[in-house]
Amino acid sequence: MPLSFMRSNKPRLLNSLLSLLLVALTALTALYWQTRSDLRQQAHNAALDAVEQIDQVLEDSKEITMQATPLAGSACTTAARELRMLAASSPYIRAINLTRNGHLYCSSIFEEVDVPEHRDSYIGGQLRLLPSSPLGRHSQLFLYHLDLGGTGVQVAIDPYNLFRNLDWTLTGPQTLIEVGDRWIGTHGVIHLEPPPPLMGDNVQLDSTLYPYSVRFGFSQAQLHQYLLEQQRPALLLCLVLALMTGLSVYRWWWHISTPTQELRRALGNGEFIPYLQPIIDSQSKAIRGCEVLMRWQHRHQGLIRPDLFIPLAEESGLIVPMTRSLMQQVSQALAPKVHLLPPDFYFGFNICARHCQDLSLLDDCRAFLAAFKRRDLVLVLELTERELITPTLITEQLFGALHELGVKIALDDFGTGNSSLSYLQKFQIDLLKIDKSFVDMIGTDALSHHILDNTINLATRLGLDTVAEGVETQEQADFLRQRQVHFQQGYLYAKPQPQQQFLLQLSKPPPSAVAPDETELLTPSFD
Ligand code: G
Ligand code: G
Ligand code: MN
Predict the structure, then answer these.
(1) Does residue 381 belong to any structural domain of this protein?
(2) Are residues 215 and 323 in the same domain?
(3) 3-state class of 154 per DSSP?
(4) Probe ligand 2: pick from 352, 433, 469, 493, max atoms within 8 Å of CB?
(5) Spatial distance between the Cα atoms of 143 and 166, rounded to a whole number of angstroms
């Protein structure tokens, strides 16, 4: 697999984990909302039931007070027995009492009593909660009062019984019956202080018949408990779903993450760096320029050759920002050292055909040249002959503007393609880079020699500058110099190298003064 170097397991693991979490989180959130809405519905139903039942108890109480009405105001000795019988008719009723002139004077339990009664302490004139009965020690009472003018009948309902017999689906701190500013809480306990602040969710329902309301709620803890107990199969399903998603992403990762994404990531990460290879003047042996060659400093795989990723970069269009980044890195590193560069120094950047259909290249070239404080420096764009440019309105505009800007155009790998004279003119080629395959012919059989001579002749006859690529031996160097090839580039002089190393080489004394073993990059054949 040629692109196997793009396969790193780290993003694969990370993305598998992320998708696992994402699915788990989404499923859990959906389950949470579903459970919450279930509980709300349950609370609402329970509240409806509760109001219906309490209303019924109060209706019964009202009915009993009506039956006791004839006794109101009469002597307790005669009324008490009747009151007891009436009280026994309902399981909720603890006692029935008679009032007269602001006093409770007769009780079905204690018979004759005398306790002050305030009519206006009844909410809506009907209901009242008493945390302790003035008659009995332990009783908490929910009172219903029928006012008959000077007299009245009072029914004392046991809040514990009331609370217990209601069909609460949910009971907890959020479940209560409110009467005025008092309320009955869990186990029928009556409270005087305001109800606790609302936590979690709750439903409040007012009775339409009597002045009270019920509130049914559930806390976050109850919700979680419900979720764990009632939704266990769904929770397990979420877990399995999340695991399966994570595993699928892990398994199919190479189908999901394209090499283009890996290139984009590397670009964002600054992993594409320039290597510079010197270009030497054939006669003087001095450095006259350099070719900038892209390298991928991969975070796991080390240095990667451009022929492995440039085709994909071209195809995806990422070559445009990648080249821009390369130009920026070179100008940033070399502009502060511009004094080290020889006069008329030239920078060669490789540009692919596709890149020539994008006018942004012009801005990139302008920015590159502007970064240097010297006007004699030359920017050369190398276009390969292997892939000829299709002339369009954009290329016409681009090459015209590049020419005006002083940017020179080189035809790279010259001799390997079939560019015509009109092609050279159309794209205003200034420089021919004779392909290494021709240089390799030097010193071989006569026929090859002939081809090489013809290629060099063609280049010189066109009046263009010439660069020979891939010069590896002294014989090749001498031959090319004799044939008037202007510049040379190859391992004989130096390999492509990191920028700092290239700068170091520039600051060294001229090549002729360098001892053979002082550098592996410069050879003694320089003389
Ligand atoms: O160094 P070498 O192996 O560097 O280069 C291999 C090929 O990759 C060459 O054909 C060269 O033109 C191409 N290449 C290197 N750097 C770049 C670049 O920045 N842009 C383009 N388009 N091609 C490049
Ligand atoms: O852009 P172009 O296709 O010309 O790219 C030049 C390529 O040639 C780069 O890959 C560079 O590393 C390589 N190169 C430069 N000098 C030599 C050399 O002397 N010998 C060999 N084998 N390759 C070279
Ligand atoms: Mn090149």
Answers:
(1) yes
(2) no
(3) strand
(4) 469
(5) 18
